[in-house]
Specification:
By secondary structure, the protein is an alpha/beta fold. Helix content is 20%, strand content 25%. Bound molecules: citrulline.
Length: 261
């Protein structure tokens, strides 16, 4: 898609690791992941992003890093800077090196240092406001470091309590310029008071993670009731099967780092 100043939207992705069945799990039980199906679903995700105008840049597969398909957690990118995270799960920290090399082609690169931890899945950016989930993955040091890195560029960073799910963006994502989709059991919608709020259908607690690209909202096919609410609000949807990646506690935003290049 062409953005301001006619720049391209780039989506950085990484193929599913053959070790994905050894992924981290926090809030869901372990179920068998069909690797071939996970790979197909991820390839369909990449094709969908291309169809929506992104240039997909694929990082090399990381056969020994089970969660490495979930690239979102490794970096927070704004127009001025790429911030490499220090993921809260130690098993995921080696994922950042190749992402840092890729991002260096597009942005100056800064880093969250120990003892800070931060997962990109906890960072919801709406314009120049960044909301950061306070979760076991993202600690006060990590959030403070992100704030210190971004404040000089005119961004605010607000910590938001999250309970019952892995990341802030498991509980809330932006679905339109002034609207968020929220699971109110996991995050208090009042934190986003300036925005319109649509709630997930109560029978679909995991439906809040969606990916907004231009004027199309990518949603998981598993949540038709929430999709009905979004369509009733006038939003244009693209549906993807994400069942195998969902068994690894991942969803739509997790599988890409989006930036303009
Ligand atoms: C993990 O627990 O780190 C992975 N199994 C799932 C990460 C999903 N990432 C995301 O929501 N941004």
């Amino acid at each position: 898609m062409r953005g301001r100043e006619d720049r391209m939207t780039i989506a950085i992705t990484r193929p599913v690791s053959p070790a994905i069945s050894r992924c981290e799990l926090t809030h869901i039980g372990r179920e068998a992941i069909e690797l071939a199906r996970a790979i197909e679903q991820h390839e369909a995700y990449e094709r969908c992003l291309e169809a929506l105008g992104c240039r997909v840049v694929r990082l090399p597969v990381e056969p020994e890093l089970p969660d490495s398909v979930f690239v979102e957690d490794t970096a927070v990118v704004v127009d001025e800077l790429a911030v490499m995270t220090r993921p809260g799960a130690a098993s995921r920290r080696p994922e950042t090196a190749s992402m840092a090399r890729a991002l260096a082609a597009y942005r100056p690169v800064a880093t969250i240092e120990a003892p800070g931890t931060l997962d990109g899945g906890d960072v919801l950016r709406i314009g120049r406001r960044l909301f950061v989930g306070r979760t076991p993955r993202s600690n006060p040091d990590g959030i403070a470091r992100l704030r210190a890195l971004l404040a000089p560029h005119g961004y605010t960073v607000e910590a938001v309590p999250v309970t019952g799910c892995l990341h802030l963006k498991s509980a809330v994502t932006q679905v339109a310029p002034q609207t968020v989709l929220v699971n109110p059991s996991w995050v208090d919608p009042a934190a986003f008071a300036l925005h319109g709020v649509i709630e997930v259908d109560p029978s679909e607690p995991h439906a809040a993670n969606t990916l907004l690209l231009g004027d199309t909202l990518v949603v998981a096919a598993a949540y038709p009731r929430t999709a009905g609410r979004l369509e009733a609000a006038g939003l244009r949807l693209a549906r993807l099967e994400m069942s195998e990646l969902a068994k690894a506690e991942g969803a739509l935003t997790c599988c890409s780092v989006i930036l303009t290049g």
